[in-house]
Specification:
Elements lengths: L1 E5 L3 H12 L3 E5 L3 H8 L10 H11 L2 E4 L10 E4 L15 H10 L8 E4 L7 H9 L5 E4 L9 H6 L4 E5 L20 H16 L1 H5 L4 E5 H32 L3 H9 L20 H14 L8 H23 L8 E5 L14 H11 L3 E5 L4 H7 L4 E2 L2 H5 L4 E4 L4 H4 L3 H5 L6 E4 L6 H6 L3 E4 L4
Parallel strand pairs: 1-2, 1-4, 2-3, 4-5, 5-6, 7-8, 9-10, 9-12, 10-11, 12-13, 13-14
Helix pairs in contact: 1-3, 9-11, 9-12, 12-13
The structure holds uridine-5'-diphosphate-xylopyranose.
Length: about 450
Amino acid sequence: MKISVIGCGYLGAVHAASMAQLGHDVIGIDVDRAKIDSLSQGKAPFFEPDLPELLIAGIEAGSLRFSSDMADVAGSVVHFVAVGTPQQKSGTGADLSYVDAAIEGLLPHLAPGDLVVGKSTVPVGTAERLAAIIEPTGAQLAWNPEFLREGYAVKDTISPDRLVYGVRREDPSASVASLPPASGGGGASRQEARRAVAILNEVYAQAIAADTPLVVTDYATSELVKVAANAFLATKISFINAMAEIAEVAGADVTELADAIGYDARIGRKFLNAGVGFGGGCLPKDIRAFTARAEELGRGESVAFLKEVDAINLRRRDRVVELVVDALGGSAFQKKVAVLGLAFKPNSDDIRDSPALDVAVRLHGLGAHVVATDPEAIANSKLKHPQLAFGSTAEALKGADIVVVVTEWNEYRSLDPVELASVVDGTIVVDGRNCLDVAAWRGAGWRYIGLGRR
Ligand code: UDX
C-alpha cells in the first residue's frame, strides 16, 4: 500500500521503516529538515536497535523515502499521524499543537477515500473532533494506538501483541462481525468503518495472518486503551515501589516479595521491579495528561490515584539521593560519585524524564563530584545538563567514593565487583535498579544498598 507517516520522531520513524519492511511504499514527513536529512541517509536520529538496518534496507529498495514537504503525501492512501503529544509547558495536560498542525497540513492533500490513521497518544475525545475536520474532504479517520516499547520498537511494530482500531461507529455496541461489508447496506458511516477496518487489515496483513488479537472499537475506547494501558503499567511499578518503601522500614525484601506475589498468574512478575522508578517520553506524561483529561470530563476522582502513582514514583528519586548521602556519612559534598546510567531505561538513549539523569543532577546540586556514564545517552545528557561531568565507565569508577547504578544496562549488571573494588576509593554501591548480584557484590567486600532490600 502507499502510505505516508506524518511525524518522524521516535514513533513515526520506527513506524515508517517498519511499514516499508512489511512491503509497503512509504513516505515519512517531518518539519525538521535535519531529521529528514539524517533519515534519508539511512541514519536514525536516536538509538533504537534494528532501526538503522531497516532504514537502509527500505531506502535501498526504494520503498522508503523522507521529505519535509507535506505535498509529497500525494498518492498515499493511508496517512499515519505519528507526531508527539508532549506535556504542556504550562500544565499537566497533553499539548496537541503538533497533532493539530499535522492534520491542518494534511487536509489540502487528502483525497476522497483516503484513510487518516491517528497513532499519537491523545486525550479521549480528540479523534471525534479531528474526524469532523477530516470527513468533509471525503477522507475518513481511524485511531490506531501503538504500544511500542523503546528498545523493542521495531519488533513491537512488526509483531505487535495486539492491534486496536478505533473507527466511526454509529452503534458502538455492534461487534466487528456485525459491521456490513463495504458494499452492503447499514448506513454510510458503517460502510466507511468497514472499509477502514479492511484497509488497516491490509496494512497489518502480516500481523493479522499471524492471528494477532484485534480489537475493533469506537474512537473513544481506542484512545482510552492507550492511556489506560500506560496508567496500569505505571500503577504496577508504583505499587511495587510503595511496597519497597514499606519493606525499607519493616526490614523486608521487596524483590522476594515481588517474586512471591508475581507467581500469582493474576498478578504476574512483569513490571514489578522496584527501583528508582519510571521515566521516559510516555508513562509520566501520559498519566498526567489522563488525570487532566478526566478532570476536564468531571471525573477527576476516578483517576485521582494516578497523582499518588506519580508522587510515589518521584519519591524514589529522592530516596536514591538520600541513600547515597547517608552512605557517604551525611554529605555528598566534594565526594566523587560514579553514576552508572543516564537513559530512562537500557537499550535507549532517551533521557526524557529519566530518573537516572535526575539523580545525577541532584547529586551534582549537592556539591558532589559526579562523573556520569551511559553506553548511549551521554550526548543527549550533555546537551541538557552541560554542568555534569561525563566519562567512560572506567573514568566514572576510577577513585569513586560511591557507585550508583540507575539504569540496568547489561554491562553494569555484569561488572566484576572483585575487579572494581581495586579501582574505586570507596566500596559502596547503591543499586537503584535492584539489578546487581547482591551475594557477589557483598562477597567481594562491597557495602551493597538496594531499594527496599534487606
Ligand atoms: C511504555 C509502554 O511500555 C509502551 O507500551 C508504550 O507504548 C510507551 O510507554 P517505554 O516508555 O518504552 O514504553 O518504557 P517501558 O519499558 O514501559 O518502561 C517505562 C519505565 O518504567 C522505564 O523507566 C523503566 O525503567 C521503568 N520500569 C519498568 C520500572 O521501574 N520497573 C519495572 O518493573 C518496569
